[in-house]
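ok so I'm stuck.
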Amino acid sequence: MLSVLAGEVSIAEAARKEKVSEQSIGRWKADFLEAGRTALASGRTGPSTREEQLEAEVTELTTALGEAHLQARVWKKSAEGRLGPSRTSR
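replied:
not stuck anymore, here's the structure
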């Protein structure tokens, strides 16, 4: 797409190379330019909403993993107190 926008490759050449119709390349070009206009108009320079969602999910999962790890350690210590040291810890 960048080669088409830069004028290095024609839409017809890009279509042949990618084995798609010229209409598809033209639509992708129009979509790409519109997305660029929208991004510039909004003035956003930070992460997208999707990136923010994924970062929040990573944080949530990391916290859950940490809590599960602590629970497993507590259960193991509790069992060792009642049954003696585990054989796998040697």
